[in-house]
Amino acid sequence: MRNLPRRLRLRKNRGKACGRRQRKGSGILLAFDPILKSDATPEKFRVLLLNDTPFDVIFNVELFVLDQKRFSKNGKLSSGNWIDLGMLLFDELNDFPVVEAECWRITTDGTGGKQVKDLRIKPKVFFGRLQLTPFLGRPTHLFPLFERLQDQRLEAPGEDLEAYTKRNMPPSVILNAITEDKEITHEVRAAAEFQPELDLHIEKLIKDPSHLSNSQIIQLQMKVFEAYMDKAIRFGFERVFIIHGLGKGRLKVLIASRLIRMPEVLTFKNEFHPKYGHGATEVIFI
Fold this sequence. Notes:
The chain has 286 residues and is an alpha+beta fold. Helices cover 21% and strands 36% of the residues.
């Protein structure tokens, strides 16, 4: 099976697989994408989280096998995207793996109420859930986690003053508040605020660069670039754009030289882009 990038935005496909049709806007989904051996039997499954809703969400997902945590991942997942969570071995299906998932819808007022689900994977049910998967265009073993993300801005029946006050807090307050019994971590907030493009023009990085030499400017730009890439990799982004401009091309060459040495980078390119022209490098992660 060919290797795929961890997150790949594709046009949604519609059709039938295994006698079922996947409806549009089916919610937050968990997909087990089989990786086959030479005899076409599954060796393991790539576990994917898909956001087939019109909303961006913050998520936290953990998978346990025999009460041992196999992986844990959290962050922001934009509408119409998916993210690779980790791997599950074929033989581990016999151990009834458990997925614990939490999800918050991101609204203009901050985050909506937390939704929680524990999913126990049973082999008999697992193999009966093979169906066409949004964004991938191929069958996977697909489980719905959250079918509806309610609009938390709607008036809640019987809402008291305390609940109303919390619901109308500014976003900065909401993101620092305790949601039910678990605090949203700094890492999740940072992932939600992360931008998939970095502008390295020096006037974007420092208020008055006139006192800096050309060498100092390049050093500062590369320092900012390194810190940005660390975050992009840690947050599991599919791709980012590094805006370096044209100029003499020194910064572009230094960035390319660094990207070549990053094992997390699948590929990068400096082709014409309608938004950036030739002044940006697109980086695609594994």
